[in-house]
From TrEMBL:
Cofactor-binding details, from the entry: Mg(2+). Can also accept Mn(2+).
SUPFAM superfamilies: Actin-like ATPase domain (SSF53067)
Organism of provenance: Capillibacterium thermochitinicola
A Pfam cross-reference name: Acetate_kinase
Name of the molecule in the record: Acetate kinase
Length: 399
């Protein structure tokens, strides 16, 4: 059986087709610039044995984008399937599960209605996620669909970790609380870390560091999340590519007043014009590294703030966990920027972290143990694979 995994963004559709039995990627690609006025959309499709296909044309909506994907998957030259009936299920990455969804679910009309009620908790991502589900229902009738929620893995947090000190009616009426995100990634790398160490996950106190353009940490005790750095939305927590991370809430009305911004514009300002890009003009860590090495003071300040905030969270989570056995780095920065990993671990040496700096230097995207044998805390690099988690959950539920 084959499983199609979809990650629907507001103007994009990322996909992977898995052979479920072998957990092998047969084809993958990206449809981007969907519905963009005055411009062409683009599709990039890659087959493991057959190279890359690229094309540009007008793509008005997600349904059209999905139709292009399905046509390519069965194309005589670029396809890997004889018939769409060979797709046994579709797994969707869905941003927000609220308190309804604590695990992945088989999509039914009733469950879809519940997801639609959660759009206000994720207004930037949820409409696109739901469009992907509806497009599949139209074009692949009868094929079971599974929703895998970014927030689900964090639903083991205790109330003391997820409540905000706000009037309680905001939680009771509107479910204003901390949810956390990147849950599929934190779930995958924590499990892989336990396998790499040959230890039961239930026996480990672990911090997983998903560091990319969006970044978050999770404190995981015995396989269950007890705290995570993102909150009601992915804006809370660490400094990120375009997001501010933690700040004084009074800053929001202040910038609204000074810059004459509506609440929606202020939200966009903090989500898309802050973080690295606000401090330096660059949102990518590769640019930050290049600029600070060239003597750019703002790039150095942004980098120092990024490292400091991560180290501060790790210290707090070690206290919450009452110890630490494993620190795991993953995602774009965590997997590929050895300097970031080294600088974080240097700040943690007083806690018994001993990194093999020589082994770490230059290492990119390879699952490995980075700490010295006598380190009190094992330091690991584990490349994330959220799509594989979605494929596994889809297979399990449709079976």
């Amino acid at each position: 059986m084959n499983i199609l995994v979809l990650n629907s963004g507001s103007s994009s559709l990322k996909y992977k087709l898995f052979s479920a039995a072998k957990e092998e990627v047969l084809a993958h690609g990206l449809v981007e610039r969907i519905g963009m006025p005055g411009g062409l959309g683009k599709i990039t499709h890659q087959v493991q044995q057959n190279g890359k296909y690229e094309a540009e044309e007008e793509i008005s909506n997600h349904q059209q984008g999905l139709r292009m994907i399905l046509n390519l998957l069965t194309d005589e030259k670029w396809g890997v399937l004889r018939d769409l009936k060979e797709i046994g299920g579709v797994g969707h990455r869905v941003l927000h599960g609220g308190e309804y969804f604590k695990e992945s679910i088989l999509v039914t009309p009733e469950e879809l209605r519940k997801m639609e009620e959660l759009v206000e908790l994720g207004p930037l991502h949820m409409p696109a996620n739901l469009m992907g589900i509806k497009a599949c229902a139209e074009l692949m009738p009868g094929v079971p669909q599974v929703a895998v929620f970014d927030t689900a893995f964090h639903q083991t947090m205790p109330k003391k970790a997820y409540l905000y000190a706000l009037p309680y009616e905001l939680y009771e009426k509107y479910r204003v609380r901390r949810y956390g995100f990147h849950g599929t990634s934190h779930r995958y790398v924590s499990g892989q870390a336990a396998k790499l160490l040959g230890c039961p996950l239930e026996s480990l106190k672990m911090i997983t560091a998903h560091l990319g353009n969006g970044s978050s940490l999770a404190a995981i005790d015995g396989g269950k999340v007890i705290d995570t750095s993102m909150g009601l939305t992915p804006l809370e927590g660490l400094v990120m590519g375009t997001r501010s991370g933690d700040l004084d809430p009074a800053i929001v009305p202040l910038i609204g007043s000074k810059l004459k911004l509506t609440p929606e514009q202020a939200d966009e300002y903090l989500n898309k014009k802050s973080g690295f890009v606000g401090m330096t003009g660059y949102s990518d860590m590769r640019d930050i590294q290049r600029e600070r090495q060239a003597g750019n003071l703002r790039a150095q300040e942004a980098y120092d703030l990024f490292i400091y905030r991560i180290v501060k969270y790790i210290g707090a989570y070690m206290t919450a966990l009452k110890g630490l056995d494993v620190l795991v780095f993953t995602a774009g920065i965590g997997e590929n920027d050895w300097q970031v990993r080294a600088d974080i671990c240097r700040e943690l040496e007083f806690l018994g972290v001993k990194m093999d700096y020589e082994k770490n230097e230059g290492l990119r995207g390879k699952e490995t143990i980075l700490s010295l044998p006598d380190s009190k805390v094992k330091v690991l690099l584990v490349p994330t694979n959220e799509e594989l988690v979605i494929a596994r959950d889809t297979m399990a539920l449709i079976s």
